[in-house]
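Batch job 17 of 40 flagged for manual review because the log was empty.
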Amino acid sequence: MNLENFQWTRYPEHYKISENKIEITTKPHTDLWQRTYYHFRNDNAPVFQMETEENYFSFVVKTEFSESKHRFDQCGLVMYLDSENWLKASIEYENDRFQHLGSVVTNRGYSDWATTTIDASIKSMWYRLSRREDDYCLECSEDGVSFQQMRICHMHNGKGKIKFGIYACSPEASSFQAVFTHMQLLECQWAAHDGQKPDKTK
């Protein structure tokens, strides 16, 4: 991928970009979250993205986060459209026993959070975002070969031109270095549905 096509939406504490690697050092008290359950709104995480109007594609990235050590330290894949419409997939550190592998989808200013618990010893993860018009699929993989579905979602503002890429943040009083490699833009790896037919429209 040509990283010259990427732009920052808010800068991290420090960063380093080379041909095949992006290193981000997070700022304390940075996050992406909107309203739901916690009732607060955080919209200050650094985001590094490119723009596309392509309706069918897959984006792959490997994340490494050996330094994550404080509650909610996280890094991963993001599609940030604006402060009230975005999605992300990441691992959030919890303690020295477990972490939360999950995703957040935010539509029209309200976030959800879907997670599963994984061991705290896991310090790298691959993610794949696939687009089929305004529907999206998030997947993860420990080896970059076999991907497992995390969720399928619809983005109300996800038609036409979008932005997608990577992010890293530390919602509490912490900072760590996140490393991103193996970024690829591929033909859509999310196959068209071949089961139940769509409802007929009048």
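Reviewer: the log was empty due to a logging misconfiguration, but the result itself is present. The CA atoms of residues 4 and 62 lie 19 Å apart. Unflagging and moving on to job 18.
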